[in-house]
Write a structure and sequence with these properties.
One of its GO terms (biological process) is homophilic cell adhesion via plasma membrane adhesion molecules. The protein has four helices and 41 strands. The protein is mainly β and 526 residues long. The relative contact order is 0.06.
Length: 526
Amino acid sequence: MSVHRHDNMTLECAFVSLTDITSFKWIKHVKNVQTVLNETTHPDKFSVSLSGSSRNVLLFKSDFILEDAGTYQCIVSNENGENDDNVTVLIYEEIPNPQVTSKIYPLNLGGDVHLECMIDVYPEVTDVWWMKDDGLIDITDSRYSGSVPEKPSLNISMPTTDDIGYYRCCANNSIGFNCSNNTILGYTPFIINSTDYAEGFIGKSLHVNCEVKSVPKILDVTLQPKGTIFNSDVSNISTGNHRTKFTFMITDPTLQDSGNYTCNATNVHTSSISDTIKLEIYDQSDKHITFGERIIIDCAVESHPAITKSTEITWSLNGSCVNTKNIIKYKQPTPTSLTINNATFGDQGEYTCAVEKDMINGTSGGFLITVNGGKATGGTLDNPNITFTSVEKSDEGNYTCYVTNAVGKRAGNSVYIQVNESMCPCLCSFKQKLEFWKNKNFTKEEMLEYMAPFLKKTLEEMKLEQNKLSKNIRKRTSAKDDRTSSQQIGLVGIVFIAATFGVIIVFDIIAIKRYLLNIREAFNRV
C-alpha cells in the first residue's frame, strides 16, 4: 500500500483465536533493521488496542513521512503458539506543489522584498526557479538571492517600479515540475509620472496626463479637483508592462476650473494619489487682425520661482518654432510677451509659449490669430509685376506671366519661387560652441595649442594605472612575508614535508633490502 506524505495511516491485523491471546506486537522492517513497535515504545505516535470480540490489532501512525515507509509485521500469540502477517507501506511519489504563503506583497522601494515559497514533496526537489509575468527571472542578477532547493524563497534587494508584476515559484524533481499560483508584488498603484503644471484659456480644451503602473489591472483613474471628478476610460487599455498613460481632456474650461488637482488610481486592492497638479485658466480670446497690423501676445505662464528678464521663453506657431531673434519682425518688450510687427498671412495660426529652466517648467495653451486682407498685389496693366506680402509653403512653385493683345496670347519666362521655412533656434549650450568656432580661423599649430589642455585632460582620464593591473596584484599576493608567524608556519610545513618523505624513503630501503635477501636465497638454493 502507499500513503501520501503527512497523511494518517492505520494498519489492521485481524485474526481468529479460540483461546485467549497471550501477546501481540508490531515489528517494522527497514532494510536489515527491525524495530518493535508498541504503545509504550512510541506513545506519542502509535497506539495498539485489542478488542476481545473483533479480535483485531490496530496500529495508528499520524503525519506519515519518508522515514515511516517499510514493511510492518503483526505477530499474535496464544497458548498454542503464534502467527503473523505483514504489509509493505510505501510513500507516494508526487510532482512538486510549490505554495506561496501570501497572495500580495507591498513594493518596498529602496528596501528589500522577500517572496515566500514552501515546497514539501517526495522525491526531493532538484531545481527551483521563479517566473515574472511569464518570463524567467535571471537569478544571476546580484539583486536576487534564494531560488535554490534548500531555500526556494526569492529575495529582491533595492526593488524599483520595474519589479512590479505577477510572480510564480516553480520546482522540479524526478517525477516532473509544477508552479505555484500567482503572487503580486507591488499591489498598490504607482503614479510614476503626471503633469505637474498645466494652463489654458477660457473655452480652449486642454489635456492633463497621468501615467500609472499597477498589478493587477487598473479599475479606475480619476482627475479630482475641489468637488468635480473627471473619469478616464479604463475599459480598453493596453497595460504592456503594467504601465499605462491616461489622458484627461478638460473641455470648455472656465476661470472656476483653476486650482489644484490630483490623479487618483484604483485597483482591486487599494488606491493611490499623485502629487498636486496645478491648473491655471486665463481669460484670453482668439483675435482677428488686419494684414500689416501690429499685435502683442502675452505668455500666460505662472511659475515658482517667478520668471525674470533672464528667463528664456520659446514661442511656437502651429507646432513650429518662432525665430524671435528676428528683432525686426518680433519684439519681446517683457519676458512674457511677444510683439508681431506687420502681420502677414504667414503669422496666422495657433501660438503657444513654453519655458524650461531649472525648476521652471510649463507650456501655455493655444492662442489663435487670424489675419484678414489681400495676399498678393499687382498683375494688372498698370502694375504687371506681382508682389507677395507674405508667402507660405503652399506658394512654392513655377510662376509664368501671360500677355494678351489683339494678335494673341504669349507666355513669358517662368520663375520658380522656393519658400524656406525658418529653423527652430538652438537653445542648448551647444549653440555657444558653434558660434565660437564659426568666428575662429586657426592654423594647425594654433589649434593644437588651444586644444592642449583638453587633450591633457582626456589623456589623464584614459591613463591606465599599471599598479591596478591583475599581474601586479598577483605579484603583491605572492610577495615576501617576513612576519614571525609566517616563518613559524613555514618551518612547520618544511618539517612535515621532510618527515613525510623520510618515512617513504625508510620504507623503500626496507623493501629493497628484503628484495635483495630474497634474490640471494634464491641463488644459494641453486
